[in-house]
Design brief:
Blueprint lengths: L1 H21 L21 E6 L2 E9 L7 E8 L5 E7 L2 E7 L5 E6 L1 E2 L2 E2 L9 E4 L5 E9 L4 E9 L5 E7 L8 E7 L5 E8 L8 E8 L5 E8 L10 E4 L5 E5 L2 E5 L5 E6 L12 E4 L5 E5 L2 E5 L5 E6 L12 E4 L5 E7 L10 E7 L5 E5 L4 E4 L5 E7 L2 E7 L5 E9 L4 E9 L5 E9 L9 E11 L1
Antiparallel strand pairs: 1-32, 2-35, 3-4, 4-5, 5-6, 7-8, 9-10, 10-11, 11-12, 13-14, 14-15, 15-16, 17-18, 18-19, 19-20, 21-22, 22-23, 23-24, 25-26, 26-27, 27-28, 29-30, 30-31, 31-32, 33-34, 34-35
Length: 455
């Protein structure tokens, strides 16, 4: 999703600035020590506390570029991991097997021509029940300088089965931000598109449905307020096949044919309870929305059941919320939040657990990408200077283990995703690099992925 990109960049910059201040702007070594290693080499230091073991760490840097970034991660039933990223200005998908060996790399192409990215959305990745891979992101169209939705399906061997692009008008500015699949492997994509041929007409949420063969079944637009880029950020689907889309301008529900059922509009984009950065649906088709103004729960008819209000923090350039549900219907929200009852004027990086009635059960003072396992244990992965910090908490908020990974060549880092396989192994991916212009001709960024097992 687009929010992942801007959040990751913001976190990397903040970590870099904080570390330079705390270390007197010392890069931590001489020029020879800060040389960027070649190939898939990683030179890292790990710190493990509790019942966790590091299995492997892999680092990817494209041979023809200094800028490689992870965007999302997915795991198949065999424990293979798939990383969506950007390398050499092109979208790229990397497959690693369960031992961390690189299986294949797929450069995203359209009709055999690389899709050069002049501007792109963060993109997202999903797997179907056959371990086919679907990726979506915004790419540039060289013919008319437009930005278009680009969606690609790969099989498990890395062969592209189909590529589809969506362009609403000419020229256009369309950026896809999220993707999900239903039980029939239909593909749903949302993002933003220009509502006409002039930016003065603003941008709308634009949601698409493809079948598993890449045929476009329908397109739905939700008119947003204002001229800014306030397109959809996230979507989810319920058991009946209804689709829910959220973003700064509000939330909309569609049936499986793309017919609008109801909307929760936001008069001031991004500044109301109906706007969200993340959305999820439970087994009873209740909807949970997490955004800049707080967390809310709605029933399937769009009636608000409860809301936990956050004060807006005006200095948040890149607000971000992660959201997850456990099997008991408890909700987890993670991000930079300023609580309405907080005495400190600054926001806090917190993760909150709610019960089904919206009561806060506990909070921990850190935020990042989150995931919940079948036992109701929570995992949080966040960026630290030079690497990642991953922690596991039980259902009562007690820390079970912590795993710290630092690459000595990284001056800063950002997490892009966390995932679990069926055996409970934990995967974290993201980006790290160096920005010291006195020791390098230009800054560089690499993709770093780590796998942990739990003892």
């Amino acid at each position: 999703m687009f929010k992942k990109m801007v959040y990751s960049i913001a976190v990397m910059l903040l970590v870099m600035i904080f570390s330079m201040i705390s270390s007197g702007c010392d890069s931590g070594g001489d020029e020879s020590e800060d040389e960027r290693p070649s190939g898939y080499v990683t030179d890292h230091v790990s710190s493990l506390v509790g019942p966790v073991e590091e299995v492997w760490v892999v680092r990817y840097n494209h041979p023809n570029t200094e800028w490689d970034e992870a965007r999302d991660i997915a795991i198949d039933a065999l424990g293979n991991s798939y990383i969506l990223g950007i390398a050499n200005q092109d979208p790229i998908t990397i497959k690693y097997d369960s031992t961390g060996q690189k299986v294949w790399i797929a450069q995203h192409e359209s009709d055999g021509t690389p899709l050069w990215i002049e501007h792109f959305s963060d993109g997202a990745i999903a797997l179907d029940q056959h371990s086919d891979i679907y990726v979506t992101l915004g790419t540039s169209d060289a013919e008319d300088d437009s930005l278009v939705y680009t969606t690609i399906k790969y099989n498990s061997e890395g062969n592209a089965l189909w590529t589809e692009q969506y362009q609403r008008s000419v020229p256009d500015y369309s950026l896809s931000s999220d993707i999900t699949l239903d039980s029939h492997d239909n593909v749903y994509i949302t993002g933003e598109s220009m509502a006409g041929s002039s930016t003065a007409q603003g941008f709308d949420y634009t949601t698409l449905k493809y079948d598993s063969e890449g045929q476009l079944l329908w397109t739905a637009h939700y008119e947003t307020l204002g001229e800014d880029h306030v397109g959809a950020l996230a979507l989810t689907i319920d058991r009946s096949g209804n689709i829910y889309v959220t973003g700064p301008s509000g939330t909309v529900k569609y049936d499986n044919n793309g017919i609008e059922i109801w909307t929760l509009d936001c008069a001031t984009p991004g500044d109301c309870q109906n706007s969200g950065e993340s959305i999820i649906v439970d087994e009873l088709d209740n909807i949970y929305i997490a955004g800049k103004r707080g967390t809310s729960k709605y029933d399937s008819l769009g009636n608000q059941l409860w809301s936990d209000h956050f004060d807006r923090w005006e200095s948040v350039s890149f607000p971000f919320r992660e959201i997850a549900l456990d099997r008991s219907g408890n909700l987890y929200v993670s991000g930079p939040l300023k609580m309405s009852d907080a005495t400190d004027e600054r926001p806090s990086s917190v993760t909150i657990k709610y019960d089904t009635n919206g009561n806060r059960l506990w909070t921990v003072s850190e935020a990042g990408y989150i995931i919940v396992d079948d036992s109701g244990d929570l995992y949080i992965a966040t960026a630290i200077y030079g690497g990642y910090l991953t922690k596991k908490y039980d259902g009562d908020g007690n820390q079970i283990w912590a795993a710290e990974l630092r690459d000595r060549h990284f001056e800063y880092s950002g997490v892009s995703g966390i995932a679990l396989d069926k055996r409970g192994s934990v995967f974290v991916t993201g980006t790290g690099g160096h920005h010291d212009m006195t020791q390098h001709d230009e800054p560089w960024y690499d993709i770093l992925t780590v796998k942990y097992t739990q003892e």
